[in-house]
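Below: protein 1.
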Amino acid sequence: MLSDPGILCYQHCNAKIFSFQLPDVCPLCNKKLLNENNNFGLLPFRLPYPFVRASQTQAAVILRPTKGDFLNDYNNKTDLHIALTTSQGIIVEFDRHGLRRHVPRDSNSLWEQSLIVESVSEAWFEHWDETLAMMCKQGIWTEATYKKDTYNCYTFVLTFLQALKYGEISLAAKNRTLFCEKFICPRTVVAGKYISLYRKIRDNGRYIHLSSTGKNGNRK
């Protein structure tokens, strides 16, 4: 499971250049970058990594691909698995195996690369944990009750959010389509841009985006 690959961005020769490491010379003009006259249009910075280790989140709704991981396997047709964490970072999920919990010390690589859909402030931690504990005691989240298309991980999370009564996300949780439009899609769109850029760099060593005043806006 890959952690943050560390995508760097810098501007040189009227182009934005993305890579995992800052090269010694500019790939466009071959001039040395690490000197006093490097003429960066944009100083090198590291792009924010959109994924988190689920066990390090607190009172959050978390998301990952059902199979594989985001960086290598995700596309817009990928099935996604949604779950919750407690204020102590315990992952609580409902799937074909029923209701399961993974404490932070567990080695669960499937949740090492997750998206946060929503989290609550510390003031809500106690109510979050109490609501989740009560729901888990209902006895309706079992291997026998699980149905892939009709009674699944989304059912579990949306039922919890409705019971939580936490503003807009709890209102949206009353309708699966609305919830996906308002909370899932915006997160996956941002992640998708990072994933696309990562794969271009992985496959080609770098990605170059020329400005409109460059060579016909070509990309390398």
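Below: protein 2.
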Amino acid sequence: MDIVNEILEKEQKKAEKYKPITVEKHLELEFDVGTLLASDTNDLDISSLKSDSRRDEYLNSLARDNTQLLLNKIWELPTERIDEAIVVKLPNPTTVLPRSKPVPKPKPLTKWQEFAKAKGITKNKKDKLKWDDQLQKWVPLYGFRKAAAEKEKDWLIEVPQHVDPMTDMYEKKASEKSEKVAKNELQRLKNIARAKKVNIPRVGLPVTSDKANATQLSTAAVVAKASTASLGKFQDKLPKEKEARGKGVHELIPGKDRKRKAPIPTPQVEKQNNLNLIDKILNKRPKIDMEKAVSKHINEQQIQRSEEKKNMNPAKGKRKGKGGNATNFSNKKPKAGKGQRNPSKKNPGRKRR
């Protein structure tokens, strides 16, 4: 009997630690099980709140009782068992909760996810570990331990018969892995651009024959020129170069037809811009180009002098010579021609011997 009494006492002490699930309230709580919300409209005990020794105990008991009532309300809903766990499906919430930001939109599907959804392909959950028969141990499917296991496994790589025997297979494997990573990254960026409806340039040129035609060559020249930071704005043209034509040419050059839009200013910035514009108009002074004004004045003086010279009447019978002195042609004696004597000269007579 002593053993039975001891067991009963132990069970009673354990039961005293846990409070009952039934809670009595003067007024029932208002529940919104969809958001797990319980509103208590009962009056608080002011004396317990003012007491320093009883305040914490009172608040803990109040929170425990309200939480117990909310859990009792949840377990009144229909339940189901999923993977050895009892699950309750909550109803739609009735309380509208305020949000500082809009509800996030669902993540857009990738190209493969859309294809799998159209074909009804379901994704099976894979295990994190896989048994490797060669290493005789469990190897993770990803992570640094996977890379270490691959390095341990591929300590020796056989060179195939159709490959050059001097080929470094480790370098070839590393390059194939880097190409695969770059391809996955490119596909990820394409999915993001397609979800945001952004036109991206094509990769390469579609050459259907052994030699490219004139259209493809001109398109390749445009793409090469636009591959600079300025999108080919400061690149010189080749001799006899023509603009590429055809569908999709502008898509090859990102940002060619896109105009940069100025951001919408705030009211304070717009007001300050308008005031600065008014001050600039009112305080504007005409700019004078001194060199242009001096050259214009000199030109006007030269034109005026030339007109004055034209209007001047020279004296009769006088004409300016080379030195600027007037010469009277009426008093000038004619020169003696061949076989004529000059009348102005006197007869010299006979020459003395």
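The first strand starts at residue 30 and ends at 32.
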